[in-house]
Amino acid sequence: MNEFSLIKQYFTQCGESRDDVLLGIGDDAALLQTQPNSSLVMTMDTLIEEVHFPSSTSAADIAHKALAVNLSDLAAMGATPAWFLLSLSLPHSNEDWLSSFSQSLARQATQYGIKLIGGDTCKGPLSITIQATGMLENKAVLRSGAQLGDHIFVSGTLGAAALALAMLQNKLDKNDDFESFQQALNLPQPRLDVSQIVKHYATAMIDLSDGLLGDLEHILKASDCGAELFLDRIPMPNLIHQIKDYHYVLSGGDDYELCFTVPERYIKEVKQSLLAQKIAVFDIGNITQSGLTLYKGNDKQTMDISTHQGFQHFG
Amino acid sequence: MNEFSLIKQYFTQCGESRDDVLLGIGDDAALLQTQPNSSLVMTMDTLIEEVHFPSSTSAADIAHKALAVNLSDLAAMGATPAWFLLSLSLPHSNEDWLSSFSQSLARQATQYGIKLIGGDTCKGPLSITIQATGMLENKAVLRSGAQLGDHIFVSGTLGAAALALAMLQNKLDKNDDFESFQQALNLPQPRLDVSQIVKHYATAMIDLSDGLLGDLEHILKASDCGAELFLDRIPMPNLIHQIKDYHYVLSGGDDYELCFTVPERYIKEVKQSLLAQKIAVFDIGNITQSGLTLYKGNDKQTMDISTHQGFQHFG
């Protein structure tokens, strides 16, 4: 199987067809029609074996995560997924692996209405880069709009992926919840469901890829403000409370939940709109003038956060 | 230097600013304004150390080539460059390397009016993926439009990059032209100058990345036709005639010249328009009903091409 037959067999049909794809895979480049009243949102993320996922990760899970982390970025801007390109570097052409990978990719692409339109396949260390483009009819939700007094929300449980990674690396004993933690690590669900509602109310939004404190700090810096957080309001696996090691939830990373800020006056409405879709979100604190303070709970006993930082390459 | 300061120092300003970039590097994704009367052209290419370039290649040359091969794809569609995203995987953060890389990238980006709007930086094997987007006001020039009787052109000398690679790999003795061959290998010039004129006349176009015969075959398949080529009309370094090893020019690859087909009635006009810009192109053959025949010259002595194929990963 050569490069061209590989692309034809596994990638030519990936995601439902879209009217705005004038030409997909098969020429020097793809050709796309834009909408007159929408702007584009573009993101790109790479996953590399042993850097972003353990070698034991299945082809299906790798494909899922490679697309999910890009969809998560589109969600964080309030955009609707449209097209993506895939660059796949593979040590060798393994048909079972490619079949699992492409089926998983197609499943998620179809789920979110995003179409594979092009890319590149070559022989090399296992690495997957996806560039995804979304559409935006309204204003984007940036990191820079948080206002004093806004409430800070997260869209789901934090820390499970980091627990799974620690268990896989034998830094933590596996417990009965290992499988569900591993699912959080390998099969993150991009929160486009949350984003599509919250984008009408949020003043700032980010997706949590590098850990809550580090990512929230991006909002605080961009918005020139501070925050107070309440640990007992942050949803997390029980195990974290048991081992009392809160770095998993504060700086563990790989959560791919959304963190967003909402002005007091919209809180009732946004919660009701989300509940109508059976989506729960968690009010974990407030935007303040400056600094970042973590309280254990409403008794306002502070916790030291100086040792918690988000994940950084070359850090 | 961590990931964020690295991006800020080396990549936040890359390429001239553009009015249609509403938001560049620094949020979850970039935000772009589209034009009402143009469609988009999107391509993505990866370069990996030891797969696409030798380890001895300089940071500046790697950056140049990574962007050039994408610009070459945009040229092959008749598009005008607009935006690009960069995913850079680096074994370690070396400031000299990053400085050379980013300066070279910025130089070419500025030259072609394309702006870096986002991407990803991580620690891993040396690998560069660029996704580039161009604008198209007219129709795209596809691979599928070649017609019986069209003349086949190439935009410049073929085979020099393949000679350089063979010399670097000690498969061929270096000669006095080695430096210029190496320049062809490391610093390919995307032929946007040719494309911007030819796009108004060409029925089909492709950029030559995998070798003349293999890439021309993509046009022939897509257009359901054949071709006859005349070896003595193909521009190539003298060395190839001396060693009489024509695989360098027929299937060597890495040329990044354009190959395009033009109907007889437009030939005079397209040549004049190109000459007015001091651009020479080379009429190397004609589109036929079927098959692919290579003649030595006008005496129509045929040459065996069965051993010449374009480069294919996993081939």
Quick overview of this protein structure:
Chain A has helices at 3-11, 59-77, 95-112, 160-168, 178-186, 192-198, 212-223, 238-243, 247-251, 267-276, and strands spanning 21-23, 30-32, 39-48, 80-90, 115-123, 127-136, 151-154, 204-207, 226-230, 258-262, 282-288, 292-295, 302-303. With 315 residues, the first copy, chain A, is an alpha+beta fold. In chain A, α2 runs parallel beside α3 (95-112) and α2 runs parallel beside α6 (192-198).
Please provide a written account of the structure:
The structure is a homodimer of 315-residue chains. With 315 residues, chain A is an alpha+beta fold. Helix content of chain A is 33%, strand content 24%. Chain A has a 7-stranded mixed β-sheet with strand order 8-10-7-11-9-12-13, sandwiched between helices. In chain A, strands 3-6-4-5 form a 4-stranded mixed β-sheet. Chain A has a two-stranded antiparallel ribbon with strand order 1-2. In chain A, strand 1 and strand 2 (30-32) form a beta hairpin. The longest helix of chain A is centred in the N-terminal third of the chain and has 19 residues, at 59-77. The first copy, chain A, is globular, with a radius of gyration of 20 Å. Chain A starts with a helix and ends in a 12-residue tail after the last strand. The mean pLDDT of chain A is 94.
